[in-house]
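Predicting holo structure, manganese (II) ion bound.
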Amino acid sequence: MRPQLKKFIEEIGKDAVAIIPAAHEKQRSYDTEYKFRQDNDFWYLTDFPEPDAIAVISPGKRTKYTMFVRPRDPEMETWFGRREGVEGAQKNYGVQKAYSVEKFEKMFSKMLDGHEKLYYRFGLDTALDKLILKYLSGQRHARLKTAYPPHTIIDPTPIIHEMRLHKTPEEIELMAEAGKIGAEAHILAMKKCKPGMNELQIESIIEHYFRMNGASGVAYNSIIGGGENATILHYVENNAPLKDGDLLLIDAGCEYKGYASDITRTFPVNGKYTRAQKQVYNVVLDVQKACIDATVTGTTVKQRQDLSIELLTEGMKKIGLLKGATKTLIKKKAYMKYYMHGVGHYIGMDVHDAGRYFEDQKAKKSRPFAPGMVLTVEPGIYVPPNDKSAPAKFRGIGVRIEDDVLVTEDGNRNLTSKVPKEIDAIEALMNKGKRKAKSAKR
Ligand code: GLY
Ligand code: MN
Ligand code: MN
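Done. Tokens:
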């Protein structure tokens, strides 16, 4: 049994039972499916990689950990792949008692009976919701005569997500590896990028590197935005030619053993920033570094967001994107024209990871960072191409710089620092060998 599951068992207590379902395969088109991706809460607790399984957790029973799984089936396995089956789930995943998932409908009501509380999240799995509702309403009549169904239904998500927010040393190792592979892929893209290439080719260089180096693929759809495309925050078309003189914004991260990295770099397609590009870039870079420094124990989510707003507003003033008193500009949210997103988010198994951002949701009391949390730091400036109020030289420039930062006891650790972000370092990397090749031709 995974330590995560042990902890969950302790948290829900002996008078509770929990039902945690795996994900199902999803149709892509006609008779093909998307590549299967496990549900993160289920995966976190069980480590079981297959679709359609259902875990039943009963802390008060001798058998605390039951799982219903797809049964072994030679014909299905010939067509669609191997299955762990009942034996594999017990032998390889620490399940105390496994059954075929076909037996769930018949068996589950007995497993729920006699518990005070049922931990189950409605709204994720319609078929399972229906079964559980049918059981609960069916039991109403029998209540206290022949059965004792749980009378309190609780969403287990807050417990699981609070656990997921605080990464264990093992999780941190996986995230560091995801960060390293992601960073190396960005370095390769910088080296290979040339005017005339297509965004799609850069995407394939990055994603090829991910998979060639141990990642299963992307953690989210890669954003490869050349020129004005960089001003579209979630640009994923990735099919335009890259022009000499333009910037390229790459927001791409890999998934390594279930854990995400999320990295953005913005660099010149031809290897040399223009003056105007440098001006915008350096504002974002300075803010990003200051916000990384603020990603430490005790700083709240709001304090860090406010810091990014203040520094970006000042930076925008300095280069002539905004005019006026900083205080008034902030009050009027003038910065939102060019900076319209948060400075970062939790990252883990999900790129936008689980966990509350408020210490007290009702009072809107922001939460302080604590050791073991991993957060992105990703300020940006995006000047719309048609923004008449911006100096012409800045129009159509989009810059974002993003790293993944682990909060530690005594500061923080940047998990994606391997990829350069200083202008000189990026230009040096992109132009390395180029002069030599030129002089060799002479
Ligand atoms: N790649 C998504 C994000 O940066 O939040
Ligand atoms: Mn990103
Ligand atoms: Mn991000």
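Residues 220, 251, 262, 351, 378, 402 surround glycine (ligand 1) (CB under 6 Å).
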